[in-house]
Structures are given as structure tokens and as C-alpha cells.
Write a structure and sequence with these properties.
The chain has about 400 residues and is of the alpha/beta class. It has 7 helices and 41 strands. It has 2 domains: about 220 residues, Spore Coat Polysaccharide Biosynthesis Protein SpsA, Chain A (Alpha-Beta Complex); about 180 residues, Hexapeptide repeat proteins (UDP N-Acetylglucosamine Acyltransferase, domain 1, 3 Solenoid), CATH 2.160.10.
Length: about 400
């Protein structure tokens, strides 16, 4: 069995985090986002995998290489123009033979659930789509089925016929490419794989298999935190770096070789500390925190439930909670990130020009690469700060602040 992973999108909804970094390489639970899916497929017995890449594809290829270091055989296809999911899968015609598993690259799910879907497909070889039950199906492609067989997928219906939605995992045969060639453009000008599936369902059996357990579609930055929390919950303690006497590590903490945890640091797992990190002295790192390569967390700093990416410094007297911070940022002394509204209501975020609910009671800052703050800067809950911005001494940041801005 082979797998096709769709990872060609630009990740525009994840900006500013993806302004410079392709979405598959965003750090989650100590590894690039896409690495978790590659490993889950490997553990399910699928070692021949093809990555469909697009934006900044060279960076993805450079990181994953031929896959040997991960115990898989990786090949690559490139989608030159982003013309929809049917077009993306169609690129694989002639490159993948036989039946194959197709997975959206932005799906996070329990590895055992993925393994169950693959095992069932290997047994019966009947095309299937994975479906998951959600409380708000009207935001997704809703699945209508009869006796476990797909009737149709309805995109974002006002009155959903069920709570089952398209879960982004499919078992397909070579027949799918014939249906893709007959798929026309949708009203938004793309070739939609849901249209292909509807065409298939009218002619042949397409099974609807439920995805059990945790599942999420990571489309917006704050959803990375949920994915991180889930994947960090599977972390196992592994301390290979230097931990000075007087530092406390509780629970599932990973300290990679080449990292330094100084005396007085208090770390409650699950926490992942990458190589080259310099932690402490006398700091507090709380659960579900992921620190990328070369991150500095200094004295009197508290970090909670956050992703801090490569080369960023949070050096002294800072608080960072429920936040995602990009690469090479530097927080001046006393910079504080607020993560809770006074009225205790869910935090809203401005994304793609619209004020959106996140469903999160606690959410701090979403910060792009190369942002700097001055001493005693203040950042309100749900603030988005784009790359290259400077927030000056004692300034208050709120809302959405565009690239290379200066806030004084």
C-alpha cells in the first residue's frame, strides 16, 4: 500500500506563521507539522509515501529528503498551480500505481484511528472516505450516506443532513483518475475533489468509514495550539541534554541533546525542549509548551501552553501564555502577553480581514517571524503581529498589526 499526502497549499489562513515557512514545516510537539503524519502512516505499515508539494517546495524536500531517517521511502510530486483538491490528486496519475491512501496534509488524528482505516481498506479494497462527527457541521463538507455508503457531500449546508463531515482521509483505486478527468470547475474556479466523490458515488460504492477518537483540521493559527496539546499528550520522557543540579523536571519532558536547562528552572511536562535551547536559571515552563531549536528562555520568565519557534529569545521577566511565536523573535524585558479577557468570553482574532471566534477561552498572541518588542510592552489577548514588526517600550499591541509595522 502506498500513500499520497496533499501538502501543496500556501497555508494563507495560517499567516503570519506561514509568511516565510511552508505549512508542513511549522513546529508542533517538537517536530515539523507534516512529520507527525508521515510517522503515523509509517506506523500503520505504509512506508512508500508520496508528498505532493507546492509553495516553497524546496524547503520541504530539503528537510524530509528521501525519508530514510524517518524509516520511510519518500517521493515527491509538485502541483505548479493550486487549482483545487481534485487537480492535486490528479497530479499523481501515472506516478502512483494500484490502490492507495490519500490524506490531506493538514489533518491531525489519532494514529490508531488512521491504522484502522488503512487495515480495513487493505482487507476489502473498496474505495472509502473517512468521516468524523463534529458539533458544527455547517462549516464543512457534510456527508449524506445510506447504510454506510456515500450518497453525496454537501458543502457548508445551512441545514446539515448529519453531523458527519469529510475527514480528509480516502482509500482510492486507479479508477479515481478517470472521474477526476471528468470533474469540472466549481463556482470558485477550482476542481473540487468533493465533486469527484459525488460523481463516483452515483456510479459505484464509496464507503463512509467513521474516524474514531481525536481529529482536527488545522486551518487557522489558533488550531495549531489544539493540535500541539493533543500531540504533546503522547510525549514520552527523554532527557539527553544537560540539566544542572537544582532544576526540576516533572512528568513527560523531552530535553534534546545539546540543550541546557539551568539551575532553578521548574518544568512541568509535557514539554519539548529542542537542541540548542538555553533555559533558565529560575524560570517556569508549564505543560504543552514546545520550544524550537535555539530558543532562549531566561530568568523570571513563565511560559505556558505555547509554541515558540526556532531562534526566538524570551530572555527576562516575560509572561507568554497560550501563544504561537515565530522564528527569531526577541521579547524585551518585562514584555507581557495577556491570554484571558476580563469578561471571560472566548477570544476573537482578526484573520483574513474578518473578526473570527476562536472558541478558545485563553489565547495570547500569534506572532510572525523577526518581531521585536521593547521593555514593558503589553500584548492583548488574540493579537496578531505580522513579521518584522517592532513594538516599542511600554507600547500596547492589539488587533492585527501588519508586516514591518512600528508601534510606539
Amino acid at each position: 500500500m502506498k500513500a499520497l499526502i496533499l501538502a501543496a497549499g500556501e497555508g494563507t489562513r495560517l499567516r503570519p506563521l506561514t509568511s516565510n515557512i511552508p505549512k508542513p514545516l511549522l513546529t508542533v510537539a517538537g517536530r515539523p507539522y507534516l512529520a507527525h503524519l508521515v510517522e503515523a502512516l509509517r506506523d500503520a505499515g505504509v512506508k512508500e509515501q508520496c508528498l505532493l508539494v507546492g509553495w516553497k517546495s524546496n524547503r520541504v524536500k530539503e528537510f524530509f529528503g528521501d525519508g530514510r531517517q524517518m524509516g520511510v521511502e519518500l517521493s515527491y510530486l509538485e502541483q505548479k498551480e493550486r487549482l483545487g483538491t481534485a487537480n492535486a490528486i490528479g497530479v499523481a496519475e501515472g506516478a502512483i500505481d494500484g490502490d492507495f491512501i490519500c490524506v490531506n496534509g493538514d489533518v491531525v488524528m489519532a494514529p490508531e484511528a488512521l491504522s484502522q482505516l488503512i487495515s480495513a481498506f487493505e482487507r476489502d479494497r473498496t474505495p472509502f472516505m473517512g468521516a468524523v462527527e463534529v458539533p458544527d457541521p455547517e462549516r464543512f463538507g457534510v456527508v449524506e450516506h445510506v447504510n454506510g455508503k456515500l450518497v453525496r457531500i454537501i458543502e457548508k449546508p445551512a441545514d446539515p443532513p448529519s453531523r458527519l463531515i469529510n475527514g480528509g482521509v480516502f482509500g482510492l483505486s486507479q479508477e479515481v483518475f478517470g472521474y477526476i478527468r471528468r470533474t469540472g470547475r466549481s463556482p470558485r474556479g477550482e476542481y473540487e475533489f468533493t465533486d469527484t466523490l459525488n460523481m463516483m458515488a452515483a456510479k459505484t460504492d464509496v464507503l463512509v468509514r467513521r474516524i474514531e477518537g481525536e481529529w482536527m483540521d488545522v486551518g487557522y493559527p489558533w488550531e495549531l495550539l489544539r493540535a500541539n496539546e493533543f500531540l504533546m499528550g503522547r510525549l514520552k520522557r527523554d532527557v539527553r541534554g544537560t540539566v544542572e543540579e537544582g532544576a526540576v523536571l516533572k512528568g513527560e519532558v523531552v530535553v534534546e541533546e545539546g540543550a541546557l536547562v539551568r539551575s532553578g528552572s521548574y518544568i512541568e511536562g509535557p514539554v519539548h525542549i529542542a537542541k540548542g535551547c538555553d533555559i533558565g536559571p529560575n524560570c517556569y515552563i508549564r505543560p504543552s509548551t514546545c520550544l524550537g531549536e535555539g530558543v532562549r528562555v531566561g530568568s523570571a520568565v513563565e511560559v505556558k501552553n505555547s509554541i515558540i519557534m526556532k531562534g526566538t529569545h524570551v530572555p527576562h521577566h516575560n509572561y507568554v501564555g497560550d501563544s504561537i511565536i515565530g522564528e527569531r523573535c526577541n521579547l524585551g524585558a518585562g514584555t507581557k502577553v495577556a491570554n484571558l479577557r476580563f469578561d471571560d468570553r472566548p477570544v476573537k482574532v482578526t484573520a483574513k480581514g474578518q473578526l473570527m471566534g476562536t472558541g478558545r477561552r485563553k489565547l495570547g498572541v500569534i506572532m510572525g517571524d523577526d518581531v521585536r518588542t521593547g521593555i514593558n510592552a503589553m500584548i492583548e489577548p488574540g493579537t496578531v503581529i505580522w513579521e518584522g514588526t517592532v513594538v516599542g517600550m511600554g507600547a500596547r499591541a492589539r488587533g492585527s498589526i501588519g508586516p514591518c509595522s512600528k508601534v510606539f
